[in-house]
Amino acid sequence: MRLLGQIATRLISYVLVIAFGLTVVFFVPRFAPNDPVEAMLAKVSSQGAYMDAAQSDALRASLTDAFGLQGSLLTQYWNFVKRIVLTGDFGPSLAMYPTPVSQLIAQALPWTFGLLLTSTLIAWVLGNFVGLLAGWRPNRVSSRIMEGLAIIVYPIPYYILALVLSILFSYIWPIFPLTASVHGAPWTFAFIKSVVWNSILPALSIVLVVFGWWVISVKAQTTQLAEEEFSRYARLKGLPDRRILTRYILPNAILPQITFLALQIGLMFNGSIVTEILFEYPGLGHLIYMAVIQGDYNLLMGTISLSIIAVATATMIIDLIYPLLDPRIRAR
Amino acid sequence: MRAFKLPKIGSFRLGLGLTLLAIFVVLGLILPWFAPTNPLTWYKAPRNQGASFSHLLGTTNLGQDIFWLLTWALHNSLILGLVVAFFSTLIGVFAGLAAGYSGGWLDRVLSFFMDALLCIPSLPILILLAALFGGQLSLPIVGLALILFNWPYPGRQVRAVALTMREREFINVAWFSGEPRYKILGRHIFPYIAGWSAANFINTVLVGIATETSLAVIGLSSAQQATIGTMIYWALKYQALLAQRYLWVGAPVLCIVLMFISLFLISSGLAIRSAAKRIG
Is the CATH code 1.10.3720.10 the one for domain A102-294? Predict the structure, then answer.
């Protein structure tokens, strides 16, 4: 019963957070000095289109309508919320007219999720494994080297690491593609191979950083847990090291990491945006960048609203899974 | 045994980090005053030179001296990071203390804002801002936005500490002996969060510089001022990599990597030290 109450509270705060985020996204353009409609008009006329006053007024009116900018602030806000929450419709993209923004986002999302999910999982498994071993024997040379490496890698932002990796493996020693280009019919072997090949460098830059964090924190946790009473008891009972590590220490060392992961998702998403832009990886980050470059207002509002919803949802899912993983919370 | 070992690791990290940072402070806060000309100006030097005595790190495609440009970039990045960290920590500590110590509706409202801001990815909002400001954000606006997104980190942590402190005996004693609230907060609770706040301050310097850099690397920060990120952006834009002018890209990249490592060493060293102090 108590668990149900907790879930309800979490869901309410999830809705409130998204409402707050969308409100911020709604009001930012209203306070910015540039009017998106005028910017678009200027762009059209700078490309050589000649319009008389009546035509440009008509264009102005239809752009105002397409951007959802007609009516009072309150109606605009209501339309904005209705567009995003109720229908999931962000209007048509202007740069790729008349493709709906929602369709462009639907194409980009699997790339971003695929990249972030796989690289986080790989980093999680590797980081826990190495961190656990290094924490178990903290004074070994190999443990120290591992921690040293982790400390060097962890503070570097993904995109800087991505840049270094692309300098090393695309320019100096060109074995990986500089920018992503996928070929082959969907879901054939050639297609999957080219997706994996194109994803290795962006994924590696995320894996290394997340791996670094995991090694640092799991090592610290493990060293501390190894000195607790229950580990000493297990050792005195004559249990093999491997069993003590996997059954006694690992579950306790992992749990705090999950809460940390929930807090970290926003930052990871930030990092993946820039990494995607640098590698021209066709995910959500790249779509945001295209929207900025082409002045595609609907696409910009759509992608940014969606990234807020995505990050809030991912955080909530982790928070909701947490009680299932931690028996102490479940039992209460 | 344990209690002695922790500060040792901590002070090793602190020492290494501070040494590295000292180099960057000299490079970024003192050397820019000695730059012969404004290093942003084009064609003040011959183009595409390699490293030499007159141009320590060579020159760019646009005839800028890379060494002096780098010192200016460091200067702007460091100052941005420091200002962001200062105000974020200040606001965060105040808000956290207020929320944790007074409780009630103030706590609920502040906690909601802190949680909501923590959940919202800051970079998309910054990109939105930059796009609407015509693809350019001036450094003060970037700084303001970063402060807005970074105060909740210290805020939440300080609130948690203040919540546990409220139940401690000596706070009650102070309370019953008629100490005013601000004195209890300042004299009795603040010392407990000072060490942690210092670590967080350094960490926020890192986050601030990193976020501005990420904005700049994709060309959305200020083009009027040099920062590490804009330096990387222009180097990439003018195909420094294809032309194999690795110094132009490499210098700012190496600089920022070393700076982040030193900041991380300092903040984790401080954190270890304050944790050890609390035990001992």
Answer: yes
